[in-house]
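#data-curation
PF: Archiving a pair of folding outputs for the training set. Convention for this channel: one message per protein, sequence first, structure tokens after, nothing in between. First:
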Amino acid sequence: MNVDKFIENIKNKEINTYFQKNLLAVNPFKSHKIENYKYSQLNKIDFNKSHNYIHELNLNTKDNFLDDFQKSKVREGISSDHISWNFNGPDSAIRLSGLIEDPFNHIFNLDNINNDICIIDLSLYEEINFVFNYTKNKKISIVIIDSNYNIHKSPKCFKFNVYEKSNIEILQMSYNKNTSLIFYEFNQFNSSVVNLTVLQANNIHLRNEYYFNLGSDCICKISGANFSNLGINDNYSFIQHSKPNSSSREIFKSIVDHGAITNFQGKIYVNKIAQKTDGYQMSRSLLLDDISKSNNKPELEIYADDVKCSHGSTVSNINEDHLYYFNSRGISSELAAKILKKAFIQEVLDSIENISLKELSDKMINEFL
């Protein structure tokens, strides 16, 4: 991705200067040495690389959001308010690239959704930068499907403002993608809840970023599983506890084989006033051969003294004793491996609360495992 040619779209001098300083000066699409991107290898993306085999996954669902979105969205040019960065870390290169390529935000009020489950098929949207506001004191469920493998190479950027006592559950399914670059930002106001589950399979080059800014008494849960991928599968998270009494739980699991690379880098940041924070982060990888790689980098940055935070990371392979147990009961090693792989990611599936979202997840996992 050549971001230089897009900079001319930014007419405001102040904003242009911000982009020059924060993206073009340190550009992970040109350099592999940027700390938050050094494993993702964004500089090596081949947008023309394609799949040898596409899994035809029929979820029996269709987008029910596009019509409402096109009718009710508000389109605003970016301003200094729109590029403000509320996190104690470097700005996201994917977010900035999206704003440069399409210098408009497309704003929608999720309060207007009448469906029990909102389904968003990204292959139908040309917009890049989405801003969703939600204020209702009840739960809404959203499915984001990122599956069309040959169109819309630009990044997608989602900003969710989740207001006081609101509750959002999101299932994102990424599969059959040549390249997928997605940025998420969640600003959680007091006593709000976000439960995000991400499933990724049969992708060649994927980078997802998740930024959370938590107010008081918030709950944030992120669960992710990637499996059967072909190239680089990369996830980065930054969970910022800005105020007291909030909790975050983050679990990412990867099944890696056939020379694929999986990366996970996540940070829990605790502000000095965010006492009584409860933060947990775990990444686990199941490495099935000697030519694949798993890079895990969990981090804690804590400035408060009354907190409970922990992180961890493991890399392992399938236990031969477990295979022997199945074989001794007449179950083939191939079927046993499938059972063990599904059991490995079951913890991620258990994090899904909505029954319909669980059923969609099962369909995807059964197809790709």
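PF: Second:
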Amino acid sequence: MDTCNSSEEIQICGLYCQARCGTSEEERHQLQNLWIDATLELVRSDNFLRQELADTVDYTAVAGTILKMLDGQEFHLVETVAKVICMEILSKFEKIQRVAVSVHKKPASWIESAESFGVKTTLCRFIGAIGLGTNLGENLQANLSNARALIGKIPHTRILHASSIHCTEPLLFSNQPDFLNQCLLIETWLHPEEFLRHTQAIERAMGRVKNVPNGPRVIDIDLLMFDNFVVRGLTLTLPHPALNTRRFLIEELGELGIKIWHQDGPLMNQRCTRTENQT
């Protein structure tokens, strides 16, 4: 039996505009004719029979955003034009889940065999869950606060919600102080591998040194879930392998609206105490 996941798209076709775009100074000196197509996939809604403009996206406003964004700008590549348009649309229209933009331009006059050249770029909003942990330093609450602030500065990323903070006993390597843990719900346009590079850079910037496996750390930032991604790699596993074995993760993710079913048998990290919520 075939299954169909319902989706709703808005299409803008053949939007004509002009921009300074080209690899040579001569091309960028003169306005180039561009034709832009955009496919906008809306965030899923229970209101299938949408009747009000507030329930959808005004495609004339999207078209106006594209034209305004290109006005007075200079680009070397049409690839850049497509990417910038995608980012501008996602940043200004929260009801758009996914955007695909095609940009076409006329080829050089000496090329007669092609009607146009073009590129297509697609960007999506991803929802992810992140786990924070710290047990090293004079102020563990400050460690979590600093990590949240730096995560909020990752490009094209924002923190939607933060769980309460739990004090938990260490696992695997017991001769170390208790941890403070917290989970974050984030929205980002980055793919998980790219997002991981940013979180690892934050760990290094905050002074984490991985000299003792499972040992004390100033900050630990784990990608727990990332939309529907399933990854089994050397540096990243999604969903996180400990997701359904640790009580504090199940409780904190539950606060963020994510239901996790734990595996059969006892939960690891039985001692888990909720502390003051510092978000």
